[in-house]
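Let us work through a complete example step by step.
Step 1: write down the sequence.
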Amino acid sequence: MRIGESSGTTADSRSCGSNRRGPPESGRLLVTAVVPKRSQDAAGAITASLDRLLGLGRDLREFYAVAAHDPRLLDLCARFRGLKPPRFATAFEALVNAMACQQVSLAAGIHLLNRLAERYGRSFGRGASRICVLPHPEQLGRCRDDALRALGFSRHKSQAIIELASALVHHGLDLEALQAVPDAGLVPWLRRLRTLRGVGPWTAEYTLLGGYGRLDSFPVDDVGGRNNLRRWLGITGPFGPTRARRALERWRPYRGLIYFHLLLDALDRAGHLRTPSPADTSPTPEQAASALARSCPCTTRDHF
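Step 2: predict the structure and record it as tokens.
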């Protein structure tokens, strides 16, 4: 990592970037960042954030070993080999993203999140290079629901986001504590998450995958995800959450990785992943990760 010092009070996003060198199996990620003041603390914080956001520390060799003996899975994952499962920066951010995207189109959900970040989040850079980040719980906890409704959120979504932020700031809710909970102890935590306004089955399962990196979590209440799974398996007829869970049992503990790969397969089929050259029909890991980061499954059964 290269850390440079800026002369202003904030980093200029035009001076930040990343580049991967080498093949997926042994590549290196080169990151250049400009920060207000050069320090080892900044390098450590950036490294930790990248590791979480891009899943850099994930070892997928066992997953690929399983795929090697499963022709259907091998065909799916070989096209995106080298992709590491991405995560949101915090569990709070994962929950807010899920709440914003429920029961609306992908474009509408992202539009709501952009408005939220632009109105209440910190910003870096200027003009076309300006970047806004999702507001912290402290900021959102002070909002009134009518303020969020003015941004386009429904009344119930506004209340859910504000109550979540307030629970973190004022009522001792520690979402990050779930990071250390073993898989066997997840059920009580899931029950607690489900007591929060706006958190239904899909939101909880999606947060496990996108917020906590639990790679065995496949949000079966995501209709789009189920349709991707049904198409991949060649199943006809009714295919609800219960049947989807049964179909996925054989791939424990990698069901979440299958969810990610099926999502990428759907994006690729729709023409949203560009290949680097006519001779190479597989998207690069960077293209795939970028597409996943922009994607938020929205055809869910959680209601507001």
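Step 3: interpret the result. Confidence is low (pLDDT under 50) at residues 3-16, 297-301.
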